Amino acid sequence: MVTLVVATSADPASIGPASSLLAMPGWHPGPSLQGAASYTNKEVRLIKLDKRLVVENHLDKRWEEATGETVGDVVFLSKHVASSNRPALTIHPIGTPHLREGEAMTAGGKPGWAAPPNPRIGPWFRLLKNIAYSHNLIPEFEVTLEATHHGPEINSPTMFVEIGSTEEYWKRQDAAQAIALLVWEGLGLGERIPVGDWCRDNVGDKILLGIGGGHYVPRHMDIVQKDGVWVGHMLSGYSLLMEDPEERKALTNSVVVGGTWRETIRVAYETTKLAFPGGEVLAHLDHKSFKSWQRNAITGFLAEGNIKIARPNDFCPC
Q1: CA atoms of 204 and 207, how far apart (whole Å)
Q2: Angle CA(144)–CA(121)–CA(216) in degrees, nearest 5?
Q3: Are 127 and 183 in contact (CB under 8 A)?
Q4: pLDDT digits (tens, 9 = 90+) for 98-138
Q5: Which of the residues 4, 97, 99, 297 has the least number of beta carbons within 10 Å of its own beta carbon?
Q6: A single Pfam family, by name (predicted)?
Q7: Which secondary-structure segment (H or E) carries 88?
Q8: Over the stretch 224-272, which tens digit does the pLDDT of each residue have?
Q9: Is residue 193 part of a domain?
Q10: Which residues pair with 20 in a beta bridge?
């Protein structure tokens, strides 16, 4: 079982951390993947591509077919773009479960799809904050989670680790070094134990499925900052497409609220369960981000699917 770390020369925020990572000891040339170079270090395989990462579909399957190695999880190194232009280091799961057939897939993926979230997301977010502090990147850089979004289509547990938000910061060597150190320590390539491995000892642990809020999921992130909290998909309000029932707003769970929101939640829940075998996936709602009719519809749907709703303290591993 190997971990794929994927970078592309088309992205300075991707190739910078990859180069810093390869400068660390223990790397050896690996097999070529359809013309792309790879490097091996213990159970880690770093692939250097030359296309946009969001269009590189099924890299896990392609690697397995080329090498015979089973892919356990995938980490993409990428740039982050934000209208604020604020420097940032971000981590997020991927998927486009809210999109309908026929909609334009401008950032990869496919309608109604989400990759299983990489179980390392929560532990690596906390590790990244510590690394950023120790390298004096905070407060200049914000360290944050993002909601589930974009492709590429893939079936293995996956996450994106990104540097934002403009070309000036994508090329920052100190930011690249911080991301490289995150991967180095997080995957146990040094002398430390890997961070964020989900195993049989974690059976019964609780996993946060975030529902609602903005793109940077602040209410969910407040919980994930606590040691020992696992995190799955995080669905921002804009991905929960709900058709306003208008005059029937006074009704509660019986209201039939149209839109893709049900399928979005269902796919996010099922793929999160897939990523954490034996774990208990609990929904955490950003209640204040919803109107009452939206909140009633969502809580009713969760109850129908036997998906428990949890409070912040319910995720405390102690």
Answers
A1: 9
A2: 30
A3: no
A4: 998 888 788 899 999 999 999 999 999 999 999 999 999 99
A5: 99
A6: tRNA_deacylase
A7: strand 88-92
A8: 999 999 999 999 999 999 998 875 555 555 458 889 999 999 999 999 9
A9: no
A10: none
**What tokens were used for 135?**
């390298």
The encoded tokens of residue 202 equal: 């974690």
Q: What is the pTM for the complete model shown?
A: 0.95
The verdict on 172 and 81 lying in the same domain is yes
Calculate the CA dihedral of residues 220, 226, 232, 237 and round it to 10 degrees: 10
The domain that holds 140 is classified in CATH as 3.40.630.50
Count other C-beta atoms under 10 Å from residue 253's C-beta: 13
Extended beta strands in 166-219, E state = 206-211
* Assigned token pair, 267: 């796919």
pLDDT of residue 254: 46
∠ at Cα 285 (281, 288), nearest 5°? 175
Phi, psi for residue 143 in degrees, rounded to 5: -105, 120
Locate 195 and state its tokens: 């961070």
Domain of 224, in residue numbers: 200-315
